[in-house]
Specification:
401 residues, alpha+beta, Beta Polymerase, domain 2, Hydrophobic Seed Protein, Methane Monooxygenase Hydroxylase, Chain G, domain 1, two-stranded antiparallel ribbon, disordered N terminus
Length: 401
Amino acid sequence: MKKVIDVDRLFELGSEVIRILAEHDHEAYFVGGSIRDALLGMEIKDIDITTSALPDEVMRIFPMTKPTGIKYQSVTVSWKNHRFEITSFRMEGKYENHRHPTEVRHTTHLKDDLLRRDFTINALAMDAAGTIIDYHEGLSDLRQGIIRSIGDPNERFEEDALRMLRAFRFQSKLGFTIEAKTAEAVRDSRKLLLKIANERILNEWAKILEGAHCQMTFQTMIDLQMTDVFPELARGMEILRLQGNHNLNIIQFFALCQYLNQEPLAGSWRFSKKERYTIDRLAELVEVTQNDLFDALIVFGYGTAFSLMANQINVVLNKDNDQRQRIEDIDCHMPIRRTCDLAFKGQDILDTMGLKDVRIIGMIIDEVIKQVITGELNNTYSDIRTFVEGYILSHGMKDDQ
């Protein structure tokens, strides 16, 4: 055991929680990713604590506690405006469906709790004084930049196949190398991911894409034949392994893959209805603008935010096709942003022109929008009314009702 880091404000508050547990005769330690990230000088967002106390004992000690994960012996303690997830020392039984343990058992030993974790760099614990407890050479792997499975990696991936994607997620975040035996086990076990619910897979994919080292991670994923598991994403993976800075989120990545495959793919993944719509629209917009310029009608029709998102995908496909400034300039000079911004609206046509057929009125408004957006028509009541009168006359429009 070795004291290696100073305790900042967040750890100070956590240390108070640990000391209070100790005053009630319970062991308690910081555990997991917060220690790893602190050692690497990275931002700490959440701090987890593991303890010999059972959840009901923790809840008796701390009045501001919520049973957020009782099934897995976890509660969330609010202490001085900060929240700490506190989980009892636990051991896990056999796993089913390559994902979930059939039982979770309480243990009184920290060593047992750390043994069940996925990778050595995530199996570090630290006491309130800042002393590191390391049973699996996690500190050595952290110094060397290695992601190594605890124990037999084949067994660990057989238990929980999602750990394979977690390895890629940590590589993308940290820029570490996946240790040879762990990598070999990923290659051998990769098809187990086909048995995992894809909403959990999507969550890991999103985090992989967020990482600063996403490019090297996609290269590793391709080397370990993950394209066999996700063939519909293979072309997107191939492109991103060549990109140093892509800035695509999970929705944009799927839109990129849909564009490349020229067929819908979001429906086979558990996206929300809104997310599927966004993916479809982005893929459509990339198709429209990959070889052509954005114009005012496109930016108005799809929206500035959509246009900028599609432009990011376009840049991934062709770094010389960056139209961000053009889109922002169009947005800056846009005469209207919504149909209701028109000075002469559909209701005005209904009230003054004698037309009642909403289809005809809709066609007229579409033409008015086109004229206003392209600068052919001023957005004033009188100018639009005059235009509409002439449009109705020249097109021989009359109400069918």
